[in-house]
Amino acid sequence: MALKVVLADDEILVRLGIKSLIDWERHGFEFAGDAPDGLQALELIERTMPDIVLTDIVMPNMDGIELIETVKQRYPFMRIIVLSSHNEYDYIRKAMKLGVDDYILKTSMKPEELLELLLETADKITASDTEWKQRLAMEAGGESQAGETQDELAERLYRYIEEPAPKERDFLQDEQGGDASAEAKHVLMLLRIHRSDPSRATVDSHQAKRTLLNLLHLELTKWTKGNVIPYKEHEVIVWIPLSADSDQGSAAEDTAGPGQAASVPLLSLGQDLISAAKRFLNQRLSIGISRVAAGERGARTAYREAKEALERYFFGGTERVYVYEPPNNTEASSEVPVMTREIEQRLKQQLELMDEKAVQQIVRGIFDNMAEAGGPLEHNVQIGLQLLHVIQTAGKLTDEHAAAVGPDSGLPLYKQVIGFETLEEARSWFERLIGVCCDRVRNRMYRTGREDIQRLLVYMRTNYMNDLSLKQAADMVSMSESYLSHLFKKETDTGFTEYLNQVRIDKAAELLLTTSLPSYLIAEQVGYENINYFGRIFKKVKGISPQQYRSQYPNDTDGASLT
């Protein structure tokens, strides 16, 4: 049977550290609770009957010396270890005279040293000590009044939340359709643990989660009774009873009735939990609060409502408290199309052209649509994955390029999208992704494209007399027509057709000056079937007609016919 340990210390960080740094169950202990002063510690001791008490000396209301005296009088079988500071030697001597088992300095205390001291103290507990403790507990109704454990409550809540309901019904009514509002009222607060700064990442994530849970429990007890229950990897449930006999104090004051929104005091509690996590652990939380649920049967609906409220952090920002707001059925729903086929097609076209400015503009429009439409987080993640697929396909990006995009460079691109915390984070990430994509494609195309364009230019200069369209040229260099046109103009500073006409007209001008061939034959030799079209293009390029050009630059040919 695990030995119970109780802790009394007025410093929250000391209580949090001691409670979190030792794996109590693994070493045969049960952490039965902690208190910020001697008076509350004594109440906790009477309620839980621990085997070992860890206590500070200097505390408000009742100091450690008075607590030790009282405990030794009432419960002589309990073992006591003193947590002391360097300047408390007089107190330590007095405590040792009162019969404490040992002491340890808080300022230099290490987890392994405290654990060793606890194990040594545990070895001192005799069979008679255990029998005396059990007899006192039975006389006081101790363990029989302790009620269920948190694990039992957690297991039951998990079952209510996860098991499919027999039929859809409002959580305020029982299976027969009757009003269940007479049952104990509860509010479910759902906490999201946001991604930590990688530079501050802890080696032991399990330890970090345990420390956070302990801190949340400490803060919760300042306001109300309730249970802090770990749920999914990044979620924690705070299950708060609001029944009239639960002695809630200010936390339950002015609380709305079943089916209505949670009260302002609960908002303050939520913000306090967020602030404590940030202040003591540098951990970011967001919280969603359900409406008031009638009994544990309402946990499924309460969780869904708290989850729906919580996910508003994606649009409204993290480290805030969000309260569930039921949909207003009287308002006509207006769905905003976020990423239509038309938008996706335009995006693909601009990605094909590698027009980064146009691509960024389209993606900004998509995120503006997301902000306007709102909607469930899962739906927006799916849009993000769809957008990633389009960009990744165009840029032939692999997870090797993830390092250039986001802070979670060790994660595949799709996992980075799934892990977005806010809409603005997603927007900035995709802006970087587009930049990486366009740079990579431009560099790749520029290296291979320059060679392809140079080969194409050689071909055009030697085969100008043949029929050559942009489509044929694109097939030759394995590019799309639009991208070839874009790259060709970038490399030559002129369009494909204009360049081909320039080559043909230059050759025609050469023939006009070096031969006596008539214009229509020269037009055919340089690739123009229509003599009138040839004349218009020649004048556009050279500024004068073929005849005027030949007359301006007479040649040495004999008796040639000039048509």
Task: Describe this protein with a few key phrases.
alpha/beta, 23 helices, five-stranded parallel beta sheet, Rossmann fold, single chain, 563 residues, Alpha-Beta Plaits, six-stranded mixed beta sheet, disordered C terminus
- The CATH topology label of the largest domain is Alpha-Beta Plaits
Number of strands: 11
Query: Major beta sheet, specifics?
Result: 6 strands, mixed
Relative strand content: 5-15%
Q: Which term fits the overall shape?
A: elongated
Estimated radius of gyration: 39 Å
What is the total number of structural domains? 4
- CATH level 4 superfamily of the largest domain: Reverse transcriptase/Diguanylate cyclase domain
Write down the CATH class of the largest domain: Alpha Beta
Helical segment count = 23
CATH architecture level-2 label of the largest domain? 2-Layer Sandwich
Structural class: alpha/beta
- Fraction in helix: 40-55%
Distance between the termini: 117 Å
What would the average pLDDT be, to the nearest integer?
80
Sequence stretches where pLDDT stays below 50 over 5 or more residues: 139-147, 167-182, 198-203, 245-264, 330-334, 557-563
